[in-house]
Amino acid sequence: MHLAGTKNLELLSIILSWNRSELLEKTIRSYLETVSVPHRLVVVDNASDPTTIECIKSLQDQYKFKVKFLRKNVGGNAFNIVLDEEDVDLFKFVHFSENDVEYLPGWDLDLISKFASFPELGQLSPFSPYPEKGKGEVWTPKRARKVCRENKTVYMARTVGTTCVVRKEIIQNGLRWRTHRRGFLLPKDRHFSIQIKKLGWRVAWNDRYVATNWGHNIKSFQENPDYYVQNYNSKKVKIKGFQKRLRKEGYQLIEKDDGSYDIKPMDKKNE
């Protein structure tokens, strides 16, 4: 449940919402049903469709968290709007979340404990650098260096993704998110990590998944292929990057006569 008090708050969590109501609901519910430290949750919505707006309002009535509805999609800058309105001094850590994550029990305590063991750590992902292929995750392993200390392990890396926990000092130092301006207005997660390192901190992946990354899952891809095509066209790699990613895992992106897309296993493409 949302904790509204102002003393001894551990975590300011900001969930970035933009359409995809089913995944958003999974993200919000799993967060609120698993978070165990004193916290404040703010859901910031980037001018989503009516279905998503109603989903947020229904969940807000049930769980009583804070919501900010924006009149237009400002991409990753939505994080900054919340950061500038909230008193970051009240918290020890700031947690940024995309809208396609399922949080698992103990995720918050696991991540927060790593910052005590690794005082040089500024940013930590809830994912490991090794994809959960058994759950259908379609992602490539990331280059990272395993570091163990006090019976805890992280994987130091160059950059990590948008969903992460950072020390409040980084935000107090003025760091804010930037946004890709082409197509979908996606947060520039790479830039964010690089800036954290320029401030003298390290960034890392966790040693295990404490949240399921449905945004990289073949099930999500197949349920909404057109969304992911547009998503990749917003990135530097474009649609070819998405096709390459799928082929590596044995899937093919198929454009249909009406211009929409389908994703099927490569061995069934001629059926």
TrEMBL record:
Keyword tRNA-binding listed? The answer is no
Task: Kindly give the InterPro entries that the UniProt entry links to this protein.
Answer: Glyco_trans_2-like, Nucleotide-diphossugar_trans
Keyword Coiled coil present in the record's keywords: the answer is no
Annotated ranges, domain Glycosyltransferase 2-like:
14-120
Molecular function via GO:
transferase activity
- Supply the alphabetized keyword list: Transferase
Protein name listed in UniProt: Glycosyltransferase family 2 protein
Origin species: Exobacillus caeni
